[in-house]
Design brief:
alpha+beta, eight-stranded antiparallel beta sheet, five-stranded antiparallel beta sheet
């Protein structure tokens, strides 16, 4: 680092902001660029601790117009890094003002850059979706239509409408035209939705700007317009599509709005989707092909240019397992395949197995030998140096030393895998803290405040006193043969972050220290309901292990009345029942029209007669209209509540379950969906008061569970203590890299567990528990030591295979 860079790194952000504001713009731009690139180097070398980056603080302290003038002179990639690429983030309201203060062409360049890839579009979509005036209109009007389509797809419907209105008639016409050029019923439904946001005059102007074929497609989509179900209603609809007979389900699918039908197909799973599309193809093969194509929307691979067509890429392809499951001897399935557009079919075939590629390609591309080459090479995770050892009870331990080339940097990675035969082992979800001794939120606040105000941190003895354990000790005490750490839970770090943002932890109903954040079932008893739509590991009473996304669908009150809500996380409407989890925020809105019932740990934790109820972190709020006296009668704290979910009853009673996420692989293809799994734009625990940070974009130690045929894989990727030095041994992984690892390991299904310092895999070797990975450490222990955790999976021999000791 140069002397000038060191001076910048040592400078106070507020003083630096004042200096940059007072300096001539060229000089200020040069100094800000040095800070941006200096901090980027520190991040790459793991020397910058979380939330200590200065760039966001400097930009926040400057007047937005001044910050825009300084950023205007920098390369687009550096502007992108300054505004979006830091651990801490510039607030969305400031980002909107800065973008609106830049020249339209420069702002459009940034919009185009942020439309590329997996994560940046979600960031930019959230910023653009919050516009409330016309300041960003010129920039939106100048953006490439392909960028706009990618960003609009990452927004909810209300945000889409605001952005389309702000972008103007000319841009709306370009976007609609690009969608309609697909000549696809789903794309036409997209175009109709976006154009439908315009006033009648503007809509007529857009229609006049379209070609005759485009206009006809738009008109047809308008005539066929159907109501779109809410996200909550769609999950329920998917359950019906899974359970109904195939003919009835195909009718239901055809009756859905095209955009909803696509989402439903993604929810029901590949085999069921293949059955429904085949049955639908007997009636309308073109519609079936359109729906199959739309299950896998491509991403922009690089910034689109006006001089040529955009470059699209399929990072994940839910269509691939559906294609694998299709019976090509069925005439309707063959007709469906023949209707898929060749350019889209070529992308799909890159993701199917080599065994099926030629067979499917002959039908889809009308070629004897498609000879397809991958448009992007996989990262090659899992192909490094391997060492294998057999541990106690025949457990296979595989260590992989990898040099991972992510296309950006090459980093060392250590991967530890335990491979177990599912027919010879059984699993149990465990929690260390005892219900009878768990510390409630009010007591947590008292104890932790002493630490926070004194500047001390709880140590090993304190965390042990709170009930947490180290995984190797848990294995030893339980007589298990192996274990892996579990899901997120409420701990000291959450308390500190809550206080930092002015949140009263003591007022959160039903909250106890160590509470799992996400669905948790232990020995058949549900401790925490699935209030988020999260991937979970699930053990049924027949001993089978499943990985699936599970979400709550309704409740049964103490009176025996079963209740389903009309909407999840939406503004209260008269006469409608609402449910709220902490993604909605810290508390519900005050409203005399509804009574808010906070539900946590399977009981009514609080009742608010005028709304404004603090939302349980480990539960949810049921908001009931006052006129529903039948539901409100007798509701009081302490009464039991049964929470229902979408896990199919046909699979058997749930004995153990632990949700975490994200999902990594489903049906043998990449399957990461942070928005769909209710992670929102906050940290992995989805605390409404947590510091904003997208979890999938940084490297860390990772733990995961995967299933390959009848082999269970417990995996750990060793990482580093974030901000504490260069990665000499193992640099950790992003979630995208972790998903690729699971794919390269041949996983049929996989999901992530808690990572960072909590990441740990233990197995018995010579009778004694051994920690196999290199622990990161954490708040309670030093680097390289096992962290104290609260939830974990234990592995035992099946009773027919051995006796627990």
């Amino acid at each position: 680092m140069t002397e000038a860079s060191r001076d910048l790194a040592a400078a106070d952000p507020l003083e630096l902001a004042e200096q940059l504001s007072a300096a001539p713009v060229p000089e200020a731009s040069e100094r800000l660029l040095a800070l941006i690139r200096g901090e980027e180097r520190l991040v790459r070398e793991n020397l910058l601790k979380p939330y200590l980056d200065k760039v966001p603080k400097v930009l926040t302290a400057m007047a937005p117009e001044q910050a825009a003038a300084v950023l205007e002179r920098l390369p687009a990639e550096d502007v992108k890094r300054a505004l979006f690429g830091n651990y801490a983030r510039v607030r969305d309201s400031i980002l909107r003002t800065v973008l609106g203060s830049m020249s339209p062409d420069r702002a459009a360049l940034l919009i185009d850059a942020m439309a590329v890839g997996v994560d940046p579009p979600r960031e930019m979509a959230r910023v653009l979706g919050g516009i409330s005036d016309g300041s960003l209109g010129p920039a939106l009007a100048a953006a490439h239509p392909a960028s706009m389509i990618r960003l609009l797809r990452a927004m909810d419907r209300d945000d889409q409408q605001r952005v389309v209105l702000a972008s103007g008639v000319a841009q709306a016409a370009r976007v609609a035209g690009a969608l309609l050029d697909d000549d696809n019923s789903v794309s036409a439904a997209w175009a109709e939705r976006l154009v439908g946001a315009l006033d009648p005059t503007s809509r007529r102007d857009v229609e006049r700007a379209l070609t005759v074929p485009q206009r006809e497609l738009l008109e047809r989509a308008s005539l066929e317009r159907r109501d779109e179900p809410s996200a909550h209603a769609l999950r329920s609809e998917a359950a019906k599509l899974s359970d109904a007979d195939t003919d009835t389900a195909a009718d239901r699918l055809l009756g859905l709005h095209p955009l909803a039908a696509v989402q439903a197909l993604r929810l029901v799973g590949a085999r069921r989707a293949a059955e429904l599309l085949t049955r639908l193809a007997r009636r309308n093969a073109a519609v079936a092909a359109d729906l199959l194509e739309a299950t896998s929307p491509p991403l922009l691979l690089r910034r689109p240019l006006w001089s040529g067509p955009p470059s699209w890429w399929l990072r994940e392809c839910p269509a691939a397992p559906i294609l694998e499951a299709l019976d090509v001897d069925e005439p309707a399935a063959r007709e469906l395949l023949g209707r898929i557009r060749p350019e889209r079919g070529a992308l799909f075939l890159e993701h199917v197995s080599e065994r099926r590629r030629s067979e499917l390609g002959t039908i889809m591309l009308a070629e004897e030998d498609p000879g397809l080459a991958l448009s992007l090479e996989a990262m090659g995770v899992g192909t490094g140096r391997r060492a294998t050892r057999t541990l106690d009870c025949g457990i296979r331990w595989v260590r992989i030393n990898e040099e991972l080339d992510s296309g950006d940097i090459v980093k060392p990675v250590i991967i530890d895998l335990l491979e177990l035969d599912l027919d010879r082992v059984e699993l149990a979800a465990r929690i260390a803290t005892r219900p009878q001794s768990a510390l409630p939120a009010a007591r947590i606040a008292e104890i932790f405040e002493d630490y926070r105000s004194s500047g001390r941190r709880p140590g090993s003895d304190e965390f042990r006193r709170f009930g947490l354990v180290q995984l190797s000790s848990a294995v030893r005490d339980a007589g298990a043969i192996a274990a892996i750490n579990g899901n997120f839970y409420f701990d000291y770090g959450h308390y500190i972050n809550g206080i930092t943002l002015g949140v009263d932890i003591a007022s959160v109903p039903g909250l106890y220290f160590g509470d799992p954040i996400g669905w948790f079932v232990n020995d058949g008893r549900e401790l925490i309901p699935p209030s988020f739509n999260r991937a979970a590991g699930i053990v049924t009473e027949d001993g089978e292990f499943h990985i699936d996304r599970v979400f709550m669908t309704g409740v049964t009150l103490a009176s025996g009345t079963r209740v389903a809500w009309d909407a999840l996380n939406a503004l209260k409407q008269p006469g409608r029942i609402h449910a709220y989890n902490s993604l909605w925020g810290y508390r519900t809105d005050a409203a005399e029209s509804h009574v808010d019932v906070a539900i946590a740990r399977g009981v009514v934790a609080a009742v608010s007669r005028a709304g404004g109820q603090v939302i349980p972190l480990t539960g949810f709020v049921l908001s009931i209209p006052r006129e529903r006296s039948d539901l409100l009668a007798g509701l009081e704290t302490g009464l039991p509540v049964t929470v229902h979910n979408n896990f199919p009853a046909t699979r058997g009673r749930v004995l153990h379950a632990m949700a975490c996420g994200p999902s990594l692989v489903r049906d043998g293809v990449l399957d990461t969906d942070f928005e769909g799994e209710d992670f929102g734009q906050q940290d992995s625990t989805v605390m409404s008061f947590f510091l904003p940070r997208s979890v999938e974009t940084y490297e860390a130690a990772r733990s995961f569970m995967a299933v390959r045929d009848r082999t269970l894989i417990l995996g750990s990727v060793s990482g580093m203590a974030y901000g504490f030095g260069r990665a000499a041994a193992s640099g950790g992984m992003t979630f995208g890299e972790l998903a690729q690892l699971c794919l390269d390991l041949g996983a049929d299904r996989a999901y992530a567990l808690d990572g960072g310092g909590s990441s740990s895999v233990v197995a018995r070797a010579g009778g004694e528990p051994r920690v196999l990975n290199a622990p990161t450490g954490g708040a309670d222990v030093g680097i390289g030591e096992e962290r104290f955790i609260n939830t974990y999976w234990l592995v035992y021999p099946r009773k027919s295979e051995g006796v627990r000791t």
